[in-house]
Amino acid sequence: MGVFRFELKQYKTSIIIWALSLSLAIIFLLPIFSGMLPEDKSSVMHSLQDNPVMEAMGISAENFFSLPGIYAFLSSFLMLAASIHAINLGLSIITKEHMQNTADFLMTKPYSRTQIFLSKMAAALCAIFMIAIAYCIGGFVAMFIVTGGGFDNTIFTLLSLVFPLLQVLFLLIGVLIGVIISRVGSTLPLALGAAFGLYVTGLFSSVIHSDIVRRFSPFRYFNSDYIMENTQYDSSYLMLYIVLLVISIAASYMIYMKKDVKMVL
Amino acid sequence: MSTNVIEINQLSKYYGKQRGIEDVTFSVKQGEIFGFIGPNGAGKSTTIRTLLALIYPTSGTATIFGKDCIKEAPVIAQDIGYLPSETFFYENMKVRDLLKYAETLYKKDCSKRIDELTSRLNLDVTRKIRDLSFGNKKKVGIVAGLLHSPKLLILDEPTSGLDPLMQQTFFDILREENQKGATILFSSHILSEVQKMCDRIAILKDGKVISLENIEVMRSNAYKKIILRIPETTEIHTLDMDGVSSFEQNGTQASFLFKGDVNLLLDRLRQHQLLDILIEEPPLEEIFMHYYK
After folding, report:
1. Are B183 and B150 in contact (CB under 8 A)?
2. Running DSSP on this structure, what letter comes out for residue B36?
3. ipTM value of the model?
4. Do B179 and B234 have their domain in common?
5. Up-side HSE of residue A208: CA atoms within 13 Å toward CB?
6. pLDDT tens figures, B211-243
7. Of A46, B93, B172, B218, which is most buried by a Cβ count within 10 Å?
8. Secondary structure of residue B247 in the 3-state scheme
9. Which domain holds residue A22?
10. Which residues from A are below 8 Å from B101, CB to CB?
11. Percent helix / strand / coil, chain A, rounded to 5
């Protein structure tokens, strides 16, 4: 309990700032974008048919000009920011002990490595969920402002859940990188690089219509078109997501348990 | 018969191909102050960090309180106080909060002990860690290592950064802990420090224990380094007596190592005209070179 509470306390300010900024962003952006929805969609939709930018974004023109479509579109951008945060959090919660040389302090206390690892994971997940909950509430408020309540709850829930699902995966990717290279000078550039890399891979996969490339970008695992059309997640990608989740947490745990704590120099 | 608190059996650690320690074997008895001495890079910290399960041994075993120090590390840790050679803490925390955190990690109420130690060491608990000097950080380390009244203290070059007055206070605290029954493992590269404190010592060189000594034996074997300044005309040569080694004369300066009765040496030196004399403890490296020829 000690480590869990301590870690959460350390990230308190960052959690509040991220939760507030992401939820406020969706509350303000959704009404603005939905206000720009054209009265007559067909002409605009026609001109946007086969538009390469829409293609790269992985959303069809038809879905783009609907409220859930705009919500999904805005979420995908805010998700990029949230993914940077999640990777950075995963990286820093593991590597900071090595960078501040506090590993000696923490790991010589009557806590097993398993306990420390799990406490840190729990704290990070808790942080992630608090931000996700704030975002989903923000999304709900925004949808409510625009429609006054008349929107498809199931689709909204499915689209909103993509946010925490991806955050968790990115967090674990960060943790995995963190346990492999435990001495990262500065975590943010690495997190930025990883997040943008995966994001661009996603854009690229849509442009070349490659399902193989798509598997390398978690951003594209939960396609909003598919969700809006089928009211469910694409099961093959959901499986892939779960497999990746399990692999990264298991690998991180095993490496963390075995790794020597390097001498302070 | 006293029992062994620490038992190290043929412990080896390699960092890849690089040697850390090789076949280190020794034991520390209950209630003793055990010195652990060697030049930099000899493997003192490697041994200590293996005992604390911070690093894993390549081969061999070590037990503390009869428990395997890797498998049962968390259980053992409850009764160990560890002071690393360089202390690092969460920079943006206040000293008091850090000590509170350490206290919760031990799941024990140590507030009285914290107050006592901080006031004895003159440590201001309201300051942030990042604003502390090296010596003050060391003091935080001492309090953090002692606050839960451990049965075994593991100290890795503990005096670096402390001024002589604080060193004295620190040694007093250690002696008190020892009298209360704590066993102490103390690593250092300063021989005099170890001689002052310890009952027995292990000497480490190039990753191996080259000698286990009783401090009394060690003291009788102690070398002194003697440097003489002499008038130009004088030739001292080898002084021609037992116990003198590495004699070197360079113009007006002569130096040698001496082991034996200092009275005899002084009698012998009196026969010469000297400008100045300096008697000092030779650096550890020099002892190693001559001690075990």
Report:
1. no
2. E
3. 0.82
4. no
5. 10
6. 777 776 666 667 788 888 888 776 666 667 777
7. B218
8. strand
9. 2-258
10. 2, 6
11. 80, 0, 20
